[in-house]
Specification:
Homodimer. It comes from Clostridium intestinale URNW. This is Thiamine pyrimidine synthase. Keywords: Iron, Metal-binding, Pyridoxal phosphate, Signal, Thiamine biosynthesis, Transferase. Pfam families: NMT1. With about 350 residues, this protein is α/β, with parallel strands linked by helices. The longest helix has 20 residues. The protein folds into 2 domains: about 200 residues, D-Maltodextrin-Binding Protein, domain 2 (3-Layer(aba) Sandwich), CATH 3.40.190.10; about 90 residues, D-Maltodextrin-Binding Protein, domain 2. About 35% of the residues lie in helices and about 15% in strands. It is built from 13 helices and 10 strands. It has a 5-stranded mixed β-sheet with strand order 2-1-3-10-4, sandwiched between helices. The chain has a 5-stranded mixed β-sheet with strand order 7-6-8-5-9. α9 crosses α10 and α9 packs across α11. β6, α5 and β7 form a beta-alpha-beta unit.
Length: about 350
């Protein structure tokens, strides 16, 4: 999802913009100095604490210790991780599970290897003055969302409460600020816990003056940030993938343990937003990667029940899906995570 607050893209990503034809075969990882395997990781968006575990692992030397020379490729509005990984412009990518499933349904031989976020970060936020104390109160209101695949959880929420999206309320296009909610042109707006909700608080609105609807609490959550590979490339580079995951898990464990330090590391990469916001983001992202009560040793583990729920909602609400999502070992595998965590 695009974030307006991050507007600068690093020039290094330009190498990843040129896509070759879908028929191109994945290439083996090449050695750079006889001892380190070079791995390119394509992020979903620009440098921010959403990806803090990868930056921490790179900064702390965890990838190097695992025999890997890592290159973190920033994303952007015109960069599609699934295409870059499938075509070999990157080796491993970060994307949302619903997006990955959509490309898999189109015939892309891509495979999830780890689940970074265990919970959804999507909220519906409203001012208490709007009187939206529960999802049922969305009836007759203006509700904003970015669409483009971000609306599925909202649609599932409406169906749960038997609200017709066309007649019971008005769904409107949301921009990439929270201005519509602040100025009152919508009653409820979509917000990621680690970004837009923080922007509301930073604008001077008190949390006590807001109501939130949490998709996890409502049982309509869909999985977001995951790690995926071209399955052909991964099958030829099993040891590299496992070592990459081992270093990555260590980076995320460190970031979750000390999100303030992680936020500072990410801030130094780009400095496109304030240090305070990166630290806020890091603290909230930590709650998604390792929720309360979650064993940090299991960071990256794939919850297949949550994957199946994501597939269910994608099938219900993406009418343009090429075919039904496939959820099995060809599309979601714990093989590399199991090896990395032995």
């Amino acid at each position: 999802m695009k974030k307006k607050l991050l507007t600068l893209c690093l020039s290094v990503v330009m190498m990843g913009l040129t896509l070759v034809s879908c028929g191109t075969k994945a290439q083996d990882t090449t050695k750079t100095d006889g001892s380190l395997d070079k791995v390119k990781l394509q992020l979903k968006w620009l440098p921010q604490s959403q990806f803090m575990g990868f930056y921490v692992a790179a900064e702390k030397g965890y990838y190097k210790d695992a025999g890997i020379e890592i290159e973190l490729l920033p994303g952007g509005s015109d960069i599609i991780p699934e295409q870059n990984v499938y075509n070999g412009a990157a080796d491993i990518g970060v994307t949302w599970v619903s997006s990955l499933m959509t490309y898999q349904a189109q015939g892309y031989e891509l495979q999830e290897i780890a689940q970074v976020f265990q919970k959804s970060g999507l909220l519906l936020a409203s001012k208490k003055s709007s009187g939206i104390n529960s999802p049922a109160d969305l009836k007759g209101k203006k509700v904003a969302n970015w669409f483009g695949g971000n609306e599925y959880e909202v649609l599932a929420l409406l169906e749960k409460y038997k609200l017709n999206k066309d007649s019971d309320l008005k769904l409107v296009q949301q921009d990439y600020t929270m201005d519509q909610l602040k100025e009152g042109s919508v009653d409820a707006a979509s917000a990621m816990t680690y970004n837009e909700f923080g922007l509301l608080l930073e604008s001077g609105i008190k949390e006590s003056d807001l109501n939130v609807i949490n998709m996890n609490d409502e049982g309509v959550a869909m999985l977001e940030d995951c790690l995926f590979v071209n399955s052909e490339w991964a099958s030829k580079n099993k040891d590299v993938v496992s070592r990459f995951l081992k270093a990555t898990i260590k980076g995320w464990q460190e970031a979750v343990k000390n999100p303030e330090a992680a936020g500072k590391i990410v801030y130094e990469v780009d400095k496109s937003v304030s240090l305070e916001h990166q630290v806020y983001m890091a603290k909230e992202v930590a709650k998604l990667a390792a929720p309360e009560g979650f064993d940090s040793a299991k960071i990256g583990q794939i919850d297949m029940d949550a994957v199946k729920q994501t597939a269910k909602f994608l099938k219900l609400y993406n009418k343009d899906l090429a075919k039904d999502p496939v959820v099995d070992k060809t599309t979601f595998t714990s093989e590399y995570w199991d090896e990395a965590t032995k």
